[in-house]
Structure formats: C-alpha cells, structure tokens
Amino acid sequence: MLSKNQIKHINSLKIGKFRRIFKQFLLEGKKSVYDLLNSDFEIIEIYALKYWIDENIVILENKKIEFQEINEKELSRISSQKTPNDVIAIVKIPINEIIPKNIFSGLCLVLDEIKDPGNLGTIIRTADWFGIENIICSKNSVDVYNPKVVQATMGSITRVKVYYTQLSDFLSSKPSETKIFGTMLEGENIYKTELIENAIILIGNESQGISSELLPMIDEKISIPKGSKNFQSQAESLNASIATAIICSEFQRRKI
Prior knowledge:
The structure is a single chain. The protein has 256 residues and is of the alpha/beta class. The protein has two domains: 89 residues, CATH 3.30.1330.30; 155 residues, 3-Layer(aba) Sandwich (Alpha/beta knot), CATH 3.40.1280.10. 34% of the residues lie in helices and 21% in strands. A six-stranded parallel sheet has the order 7-6-5-9-8-10. It has a four-stranded mixed sheet with strand order 1-4-2-3. It is elongated, with a radius of gyration of 20 Å.
C-alpha cells in the first residue's frame, strides 16, 4: 500500500518546481515504460498493477529496479491521466547540458518558444520517427518533463535528447555549410525549395511565429502550401507539430 508521503511525492512531480528540486519526472503507460526499461534512463521506482509486475518480473529483477505493486484505486490517485494505464515510473532527469559536437551533421530541429505540451511531445515523437536524435529548444519553451509532454511522446522521450539554450547563440555557432530553414507563412513553397542534408529546421511559436531576433539568421524561409487555388481555406496556419512532421517528411523524401 502506498503511504501518504509516497503519494505526496509522486503527485508533486506533476509540478515543474518539484521536478527541478528532486530532479525526477513521471512516466506512465505500458508502451512508454517498456521503452524506458530498454533505455539508459535511471529508474527510481516503478508502481504497477499485479499483472504488469508478473509479466515483467524477470527484467525488473535482472535490472535490479525497485518496484511496488499497487491497486487500481491507488493508481488513480497518482496518475495524471483520466484513464490510468497500469504502470507509473519515477525517473531521474538526465543532465543534458552539453550539446553534442555533431549536432549540425544531418537534420537538426530547433524550437522557438513552443508552449503547448502536446505539440512538444508530438514533435519529439516525430523526430524519433525520422531518426533525429537531438532537439534544441529556447529556454522559455515548455518543460520537456511536463507529464503532458512525456505522455505525448509515447516513449520517444527515451530516445530523443532535448536541450534548452539561448537560440541566437546556438544558431550563430553553426558551420557555414549548414543552412537554417525557417518555417513562415510567407516563405517559399517547400516543394519548390532546394533542400540540403545538413540543415536546421527552425519552428516558431504556435501563435507568434519565429522571434524577431532570429529572423535575420534564417537562410531560407519555407512554407507548406495550402490546397488548390479553387479551394479557399479559412485556416490561418497549421498546428506546429503537424507542420514539423510534414517538413521533416519532405526533407526525408529528398534524401531517399
């Protein structure tokens, strides 16, 4: 049975202040925890229903992971989901401070003030799909360990590293052969733009777009065209995560 202190600690990790204090975050769901078990993340403890523990007891014991059986009522008290999903893990937040030197080799995603947790989580999942191992975020983007972000990644958070930094400094450090492609409504049609392998895709804020201080640093302004001229779309813009997926797909298509 979970103690009051355990419940208090687990629920505190749903708040950014306490994630920073304890340097821990929550990860929920069978698929996500399965990916976690096969990653290099340090697991503090797992809380799960009996059947899940029975199914995974071998790997839990082999990896010497602390775990505790709980019932459905206890699970609902600590879950951040409306429909709890069998297992919750407390995970140590890794220290991702030093951006890898090979970050400019291939495709690099840079996110400017992405605020919506679902968008960031979906972008991380998209990066995982296209083999992008690192994402660079502005310092005021949403916390990657926000439970809604973690849930939206569907386990991809265990494979894609996210770094927070001053974007103007980071973009200034790029090699000359690496181009910055900025996503903008008034940009060039991406399907008519020459794309290169070593590139930075700069995605702007959901409502404000790319910050004014970063605009002069863009080499190529790109956009995703609307439907045919005969179709008058009333949508002002695409969702940031959907736009990211379409753009990554086009870069991938050109590479194949």
